[in-house]
Each structure stands twice: as structure tokens, then as C-alpha cells.
Amino acid sequence: MLILPAREGFDVDFDAIGSQFASKMEDFERVLDEKMAELNSHIERMTAMGITELESRLRRLDIGIDTVRRQGGKQAERLQRQVQRAQRQAERAKERARRQAERAQRKAERVRERARRQAERRGDRRVTVNVGASATGKQAAPQATDAERKMILQMLAEHKITAEDAARLLEALEG
Question: How far is 90 from 64, CA to CA, in rounded Å?
Fold first, then answer.
């Protein structure tokens, strides 16, 4: 507050007022500088805290992203292994089926040969064994015996072959 000297008339000492004003302005500037310094310090602290919090959240986010990437990669690898395992199992099953069909065919040939020999020993002329070509130039298809059919059906019942394999074998036996 500015205090003017109480004098009669309008004699005012402007120098005194000016020096008081200058002194008050200096005090005001000093207080203002102090307040600005406090405000700057507060802003710097708040900014540092905000940056720290932000960095912390970003680290958690990075960890989360890395975890997701890692887990996703693991899942993809696991699925890849399962697909490969399923492919190997399918290949093994196919190979087993092929071997079973070959064994069944060999067994059917042995049974057919045994039946032919038994028929020859008995002198049964009804059993025909096709060796070579017929009169038309085509090889006649051998007829399946009941024993061969039973053997194929037994293998099917024992789950040694599939229904498709049994159908193919019976079809091959019938010609």
C-alpha cells in the first residue's frame, strides 16, 4: 500500500512515492520470482512423477506384449507339433492298413492254394484253378471261397482291418 504524506496543499513528493513504488515493485518481483520458482519446482516434480508412472505403465505393457507374443508363439509351436504328430499317425495308420491288406491277400492266396491242393487230393473236379489266360485271352478271376470270406470278416470283427479294407479285399477276391 502506498502512503502519501499528509501536507497542506498539493505538494506531493513524487521522488519519495517513486522510491516507495520501486521498493514495493522489487518486493513484488522477488515474491513473484519465489512463487514462480516454487511453481516450476512443483511442475518439475509432477512431470517427473507422471513420466515415472508412464514409464512404469509402458514397461508393464511391454511385458504384457512380450508375454502375449511368447504365449502366442508357444501356442503356434504346440499346434504345429500336434499337426505334425497327427500327420505321422495318419501315415503310420495308412502303412499299417497297407501291410494288413498285403497280409490278408497273402493269407487268402495260401488258403486258396490249400483248398486247390485238397481238392486235387480228393479228386474233386469242381474246384478250378486259373493258371494263365482263358480262351478269350483274359485271365479269369479266381472265385472266393467261404473260408476266405470268413477270414476277412473275422479280421474285420477283430478290428485288424477297416470296413473299407474288408470291402476292397472281398471285391478283389470276387474279381
Answer: 38
